[in-house]
Design a protein that fits this description.
By secondary structure, the chain is of the alpha+beta class. It is built from 4 helices and 10 strands, in the order E-H-E-E-H-H-H-E-E-E-E-E-E-E. Helix 1 crosses helix 2. The longest helix has 12 residues.
Length: 145
């Protein structure tokens, strides 16, 4: 069985750059949010999505007060130490201490990621200040190290 190359994950994530931000969407060049970006990359490099994302509001994490995104990441990805993530890993962020994690990006290096952020198109950006909000890192299933 062959694995998924990290370079293939990064290349696929970069194809999404310029896709407009659209809440709950997951269509390259049409629209996506941060979860939609990860879902789209999953479909391209792994195959069909393992579960259907339920409808969610922009404030879903605060409204529910549950670690919904983190729990889903633990179900479908391999956990990686947050201080040793690599290109192609999915990064999970918490905007505020004691609030549920609700943002995702895909690392393109130890210092950059591709992510979809409200009010902007998908972009590759420095992790920089995001690093202090990093709460989890995950490898796609079957990734080759």
């Amino acid at each position: 069985m062959s694995g998924i190359a990290r370079a293939a994950i990064v290349a696929q994530a970069r194809l999404w750059i310029g896709t407009p931000y659209r809440h709950q969407a997951s269509l390259i060049n049409v629209g996506c949010d941060c979860l939609g970006l990860v879902r789209g990359v999953w479909r391209a490099v792994v195959g069909p999505e393992p579960e259907t994302a339920p409808p969610y509001s922009p404030d879903w994490a605060e409204a529910l007060g549950e670690e919904t995104l983190a729990l889903a990441a633990h179900r479908h990805f391999a956990v990686v130490e947050t201080n040793s993530f690599r290109a192609g890993d999915v990064l999970l962020f918490r905007f505020r201490d004691h609030s549920p994690a609700k943002h995702l990006g895909i690392a393109t290096s130890a210092t950059h990621m591709v992510h979809a952020h409200g009010g902007a198109c998908v972009a590759e950006a420095p992790i920089g200040l995001w690093r202090k909000k990093l709460t989890g890192a995950f490898a796609f299933p079957g990734v080759m190290d």
